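Could someone model adenosine monophosphate with this protein?
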Amino acid sequence: MKLILLGPPGAGKGTQCKRIIDRYGMTHLSSGDILRAERAAGSELGRKAQAYMDAGALAPDDLIIAMMIGAIKKAGGGYVLDGFPRTVAQAEALDAALARAGERIDGIVNLVIDDEIIMRRLTGRRSCPKCGAVYHVENLKPKVKGVCDKDGAKLVQRDDDKTDVVAHRLKTYHKQTAAVVGYYEGAGKEIITIDAAESPDEVTASIFAELDALNDQVG
Ligand code: ADP
Ligand code: AMP
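Reply:
Sure, complex below.
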């Protein structure tokens, strides 16, 4: 399956993507994770994106489009896109690239949630710098405080999860990214809408119920 997971920062996209790829065996393509890896490697792309990420703004479309179309080609088979497309221009570029390759997206899942819940989720988020696993200081605690269950690495708080940057990221979402849902609706695509305010397991159950049916159709 080829999927897009939409939703504001903190909706639970990364958390649910890890579960989706475990169940359906696809590649997780997170634009944010790829950018953080580029930054850690000190690449030119990472350096170019740095100031935007630190400010909670979007990196330029041309950089992101080239990066993600490249990642999709490399992934080969099924994948789930997380954090991309984040502007209508990115969605149009994705459509054009897929059309050129004779491919199509099988499903679009939109995680819906209020801003107040997001603020609590993001300021309490802790991430594993090694494997990308995501935890929360209250909602999804690791077995040992501050340590990744999977590889024992020390968990970190992302710099852009501090309160003032989160507020800016939410503004950016409403101003630039929310329109992507309307873009796909306008193109006649069916959107699977999920209430992301429920517990992590309840959200997963809702997503799996929809994707199991889709997977049977897609084969
Ligand atoms: P996104 O990838 O959409 O930015 P994450 O998956 O990183 O969001 O989740 C943001 C934070 O909220 C993390 O700390 C995660 O552990 C926590 N979280 C994710 N889903 C839920 C949920 N359904 N209920 C409560 N907390 C959640
Ligand atoms: P995320 O991990 O998805 O929250 O993304 C972290 C940051 O990376 C964002 O705040 C942006 O600065 C940048 N970023 C990630 N994905 C995109 C995208 N599709 N378009 C532009 N910037 C992006």
